[in-house]
Amino acid sequence: MMIHERNDKMWEPMKSDCSKCSGLCCTALYFSKMDGFPKDKVSGQPCINLLKDYRCKIHSQLEKQKMKGCIGYDCFGAGQQVTQVIYQGRTWNDIPNQAAEIFDVFVIVFQLYQIRYYLIEAMSLVSAQPLAKSIQCLIEENIKMCHDRPTNILSIDLEQYRNRSNTILKQVCKLLQKSMHSENKKIPANFLGGNFKGQDMSGADLSTKLLIAANFEKSLFKGTIFLGADTRDTNFSNADLSEAVFLTQGQVNSAKGNRNTKLPYHLDYPSTWK
């Protein structure tokens, strides 16, 4: 059974490109050392490791220094959209009087991009074709909002748009599980640190599950839903995630795996996966 229809073009805008950003994730967001960042910092304050050219001073050492928060973060491409498109290449250093506005716009656009990521994948699911028109309308609305003027972006009713998108995504998940006859598939109540080596998790709904440090070596995840799952230190070595659903680059970056792990075609292997 085919889960996805491949469409490379749809994923192109969702790839983070730090070279076209101005260190927005390292400046606009709040950091907590407890969550695997260099130190506690308030939103709007540059990270201590952010260089003047917006590169990270310790990027090659993130794993060694156990910066799990940095390793697991992904903006879905929102950073370059804000820097290059909305502000036409101008940075918060170029226009310091608008820095606070730029940071606020980034936070909103990041959330919109995250929602769009899930909608794009929903659009590619064979089982979700009955909802294709509704999904496409939400994607087009999202793109329009992310190309608007800063003042208009700041006035977006994000909660209302998120609720409409979540309603569709819940329907998408139900259609997927129905197509796989897995609506009543039983899964463990607790995954934390558990050993599930070689398990067939196909069709399971792992949405928002805490999979921290669980072992899924050599497991199969065909049509498995990862929406919002916590995959920090989850072991996916030699596992098949190629047809996993709603799995993000950030979740992959936070997990453990190797070059024998099969990933969805639109996701990249972390440099730490050997």
Explain briefly what this protein structure is:
The chain has 274 residues and is mainly alpha-helical.
Give the secondary structure arrangement, pairings included.
Blueprint: H1 8-11, H2 68-72, H3 78-86, H4 99-124, H5 132-145, H6 150-154, H7 158-179, H8 249-254
Protein name: Pentapeptide repeat-containing protein
Pfam families: Pentapeptide
InterPro entries: 5peptide_repeat (IPR001646)
Number of strands: 0
N-to-C series of helices and strands: HHHHHHHH
For the largest beta-sheet, the strand count, sense and barrel status come to: none
Radius of gyration: 19 Å
For this structure, what is the CATH homologous superfamily of one domain? E3 ubiquitin-protein ligase SopA
How would you classify the helix and strand content by structural class?
Answer: mainly alpha
Overall average pLDDT: 96
The proportion of residues in beta strands is under 5%
CATH class of one domain: Mainly Beta
- Helix proportion of residues, in percent? 25-40%
Low-pLDDT stretches: none
CATH topology call of one domain: Pectate Lyase C-like
Distance between the termini: 30 Å
CATH 2nd-level architecture of one domain: 3 Solenoid
Shape: globular
Helix run count: 8
Protein name: Pentapeptide repeat-containing protein
InterPro entries: 5peptide_repeat
Pfam families: Pentapeptide
Could you explain how this protein is built, in words?
InterPro entries: 5peptide_repeat. This is Pentapeptide repeat-containing protein. Pfam families: Pentapeptide. The protein is mainly α and 274 residues long. Helices cover 33% and strands 0% of the residues. The protein contains eight helices and no strands. The chain has helices at residues 8-11, 68-72, 78-86, 99-124, 132-145, 150-154, 158-179, 249-254. It has a domain at 184-274: E3 ubiquitin-protein ligase SopA (Pectate Lyase C-like), CATH 2.160.20. It is globular and about 55 Å long. Helix 4 (99-124) runs antiparallel to helix 5 and helix 4 (99-124) packs parallel to helix 7 (158-179). The mean pLDDT is 96. The two termini are 30 Å apart.
